[in-house]
User: What shape does this take?
Amino acid sequence: MPNLLKLHFLAEKQIRPFRLLNSVFTCKLEGVVMKKDNNKTPRPKKQKPQKSKQIETKAKTVETKARTDTKAKKEVKTKDEKKPKKLKMKLSEHTAFKNKDKPKKKSRQAVWIKKFTIGYEEDLHKLQIELLKMQKHVKSQGLRIVALFEGRDAAGKGGTIKRITEHLNPRGTRVVALLAPSDKERTQWYFQRYVQELPSAGEIVLFDRSWYNRAMVEPVMGFCTDEQNKRFLKDVPMLEEMIVKDGIILFKFFFSVSKNMQLARFDSRETDPLKQYKISPVDRMAQDLWDDYTVRKFQMLNETNRTLAPWTIIRSDNKKSARLNCIKHLLSRIDYEGKISKKELQTDPEVLITGIEEIRFLEKYLLKPTELPG
Assistant: This one.
């Protein structure tokens, strides 16, 4: 029987293809006999689709790979958990400037520094040299300089004062930061404890908060009466006129910080152990009383911004820019030997503005105090 072919297979529930005389037979592996017919193609019985070995092998491979990946991920997670958390390190000021040109060595560690930071440190170094020149001139000519630093809490007053005095001779420079008045001082003329701190010949005095406490902090916090506040606003222009006419060079700086930035700085103070001394019970109240401070600031500028003693407003959300612009303004007002060019002392109009400009700005946005920069 030449047209018949008997095929024998092991009993496996799989389907395999076979080629015989140019025709393909598909058989169950259960010892089936199929007839070859060139004219009629046998119809295989309907059967349930079953997976081939190849498909099974692929599925097993995928499962194995998935298990391997899961194990690898778990190992990575455990390694990451074991690794200590990286601490945010902050370089001391002037470190980048001093080390930027140092040669590469095994004993030296390379770090990434922002270009702005290096530029800031270079500018600060140059301006601090100018401050030394100015101090030498002040001493030789017997000049007297007073600078008042006012502003909201965490506005950057103390940091700016620190950079100004960092390399100056302490014998010719004083920082005045008075505590709350004592019982005895409360019975004195309000300006008395401030007047006795005014400079002698050849001296520079920087007030970290001044007699302007009575213009903003005291009335907002209830430390003075409305009558005392009104009397102060009437008297202070006359006092400053006498100071200037007596020959003292007077600067009045107001550092203006936004509400969100103030809150961020309060938060950083609470977590930084080196800034604990800056935290006071009234700090958080400054956020709740933001609008009250804005109204008092507007009133203070209107009453005390005079030609002889004008206010200089410094936008201090960026503390580094605020410091540089404050020092530049200070140096630009004093003529001394070896002074750098006016171009190098030019201030940024977006950072440093006049008191009149700030009054106009406040008039425009006074009903929307949250939109004010501070």
Summary: The first strand starts at residue 4 and ends at 6. The mean pLDDT is 83.
